[in-house]
Amino acid sequence: xxxxxxxxxxxxxxxxxxxxxxxxxxxxxxxxxxxxxxxxxxxxxxxxxxxxxxxxxxxxxxxxxxxxxxxxxxxxxxxxxxxxxxxxxxxxxxxxxxxxxxxxxxxxxxxxxxxxxxxxxxxxxxxxxxxxxxxxxxxxxxxxxxxxxxxxxxxxxxxxxxxxxxxxxxxxxxxxxxxxxxxxxxxxxxxxxxxxxxxxxxxxxxxxxxxxxxxxxxxxxxxxxxxxxxxxxxxxxxxxxxxxxxxxxxxxxxxxxxxxxxxxxxxxxxxxxxxxxxxxxxxxxxxxxxxxxxxxxxxxxxxxxxxxxxxxxx
Length: 314
What we know:
Layout: E1 4-9, H1 16-27, E2 29-33, H2 52-57, E3 60-61, H3 74-90, E4 94-99, H4 102-109, H5 121-134, H6 137-146, H7 148-153, H8 159-172, H9 176-181, E5 190-197, H10 200-217, H11 219-230, H12 246-249, H13 255-280, E6 285-287, H14 293-313
Parallel strand pairs: 1-4, 1-5, 2-3, 2-4, 5-6
Helix pairs in contact: 3-4, 5-8, 6-8, 10-13
C-alpha cells in the first residue's frame, strides 16, 4: 500500500501557507516545504517563509536546513523529502507538501530520474574559462538558443547551473528539457493534490501588496546581508526577491525601480507557476478568488476526508 500524501500547490501569494496550517492542525499532519529557496538559512522575508510562530503550530520540514553559500539540487530535495514522508508516516502523521516549485514537487511524487552523467571536467573547465574571459552573458545567450525552456528557469547570475545545462548538452546531445520530457511519470504515493488559484485581478494586487509588506519587514537588509556574504553568482542569490536588488547594490538602478521589477517578476512567476502545474500534473483546482474562504476550506477538508475513506475502503 502506498503512503498517503497531501500536496498543496499554486502560485505565490495565493494562500498556501494559511491553508496548510489549518489542514495540518485538523488532520494531524506535518508540513514539508516544497519551495526551492526556503531550504536556506536566513532567507526568511524574500521566500515568504512560515514565521517561527507558524512553525510552532505544527512541525515544519525542509526549512532552514543549509547555509546560503551551498548549492542545493532538486535531486537532494527529492531524497530528503521522500525520507521525511517515510518518517512522518511511521509516526502516524499525515505528510503535507506545500509549495510552488513544480519540478521539486513532481520529483518527489513520481518516479523521476535525474541525469546520471558524471561531470565532464574538460568541458566544464572550458566553459568556466569562457565565463572568466567574456562574462556569463554570451554563455547564457547560447543556452537560450540551445534550450530556451531551461534558460527561463535559470537566472544568468547562477553560473554553475548555466554551465551545467550546457555541459549536459555538449556531453549527451540532449537538452535538459528533452531529458525531463522523456521522464516516465509513475506515481509513488497515494497523493491528494490540491491546487489553489485566484483570478489575476485578485491575485496580482495581492502580490504587489506582499512585496510592499516585505520591504516594510526589512527585505532590503536581508538581501544586502546575503549579497555581502555570497556575491551575485550564488544559487541562493538567484531567487525572485533577491536577484532584483543586485542593480541597486551596484548603483545601476534606483531602489524604486528594483522594487517595481520585483513586483513584475513576481507576477510573471505566478503566471509561469500556473502554466507549469496545469501542463505537467493532473490537479483539481479550488478558486480562492471569492471572499468566502471558510466555505471553500470546508469543501477542501471534506474532499480530503472523502478521499481518505474511499482509498481506505479499496
